[in-house]
Each structure stands twice: as C-alpha cells, then as structure tokens.
Design brief:
Helix 6 packs antiparallel against helix 7 (149-176). The chain has helices at residues 2-25, 27-34, 43-50, 54-57, 66-70, 96-127, 149-176. The termini are far apart. The protein is mostly helical. The protein has a domain at 96-184.
C-alpha cells in the first residue's frame, strides 16, 4: 500500500511541476489573466498599437511630369549639392607638380604591369611544355622554386589585377582633380 501511494504522489508532483512550468512559459495565458478587465484584442492589434504607423511617418512624394514642370512659375530646384558644382570637370588647370608626380607613378605601375605580364606569359608557356624563354629576362630553367607553376600563375594574375586597379584609381583621382587625359601621356 505504501508503494502505490509513493508512486501516485510522485506522479502528481511531476504533473504539477510540468503544469506550472507550462503556465510560466505561456505569455498568452498570463496576458489574458492580467488584462481580463480590459477588452480583448488580437496579438496583431497589440503589436500595431505599440509600433508607430509607418504610413504616418513617411510623407508621400509627388512625382513630377513634364506637364507639371512646364506649368510652374519660377526656378526649378535640381537634386544635388550646389557647393560641389565646380569641382569635377571645371576648366581649372591641375597643378603641374601633381601631373608630374602622377605621370611618374603611372610609369612605375605600368612597368610593374609589363614585367608581371612577361612573367605570366613565360610561366604559361612553361606549363604548356614550350621551351623556356631566357631572352625575356626570366630564366625558368635556372633556379628552383618550390611553389607549383599553377599557384605562381594565379599569384601573378592576382598581382596583375591589383596593379590594374591601382592604375585605374590613380587615373580616376587625376580626372577628379581636373587633369586632362593627354597630360598624363
């Protein structure tokens, strides 16, 4: 008789523990119990009440057509900053020192790019089984390199891309400062 009593009391205790845990984790049941005096609302309406309405916060923008613009009296504003109108493409001549430094940097980068292209061509020829070209200044058959040829080719291709990006950025910067394209040649 003691054994069934202990069994059923342990079962009742576990049931009460599980029930109280479920009640503690259920926000809907506790919210409905606490707001029994207030009228019931759906969860979607409760979220809408706490968050500001996005339609009220945004103003609707008017879309202007050609007919609307022709009917206006007075000047029409243009999108953009009026302070930056004369910086790009202005007729001002760039500084001669800046042009000379940029030209030197471009020559340096171009020579590095040419060397990289030569090395890349020689490695590609070597990987295809052609005779090494020693006249170009890159003796493939002289010396030993532990890096596989395909990895050397990919690293040279990455270096080539980086050099091309640097040249492009330098030309863009010079163009923004008012340097004419013919001045850098």
């Amino acid at each position: 008789m003691t054994r069934p009593f202990i069994y059923w009391s342990a079962l009742a205790f576990c049931g009460a523990l599980i029930y109280s845990t479920c009640l503690a984790q259920s926000p809907a049941r506790s919210a409905t119990q606490s707001s029994s005096a207030t009228p019931t609302t759906s969860p979607a309406q409760a979220q809408d009440a706490t968050a500001p309405a996005p339609a009220e916060a945004k103003k609707t923008k008017k879309v202007w057509t050609n007919e609307d613009v022709s009917g206006l009296s007075g000047p029409v504003s243009v999108v953009g900053n009026s302070k930056n109108l004369g910086t790009a493409g202005s007729g001002a001549k760039a500084d001669a020192q800046y042009i000379a430094n940029t030209r030197k940097e471009l020559v340096k980068l171009q020579s590095q790019l040419d060397d990289t292209n030569k090395q890349l061509g020689n490695l590609k020829d070597f990987s295809e089984g052609k005779a090494p070209a020693t006249s170009s200044g890159y003796p493939i058959n002289k010396g030993y390199n532990r890096v596989p040829v395909d990895q050397q080719i990919t690293s040279l291709q990455d270096k080539k891309k980086q050099l091309e990006v640097k040249i492009g950025e330098l030309l863009d910067e010079a163009r923004k400062k008012g340097v004419q394209p013919g001045d850098l040649r």
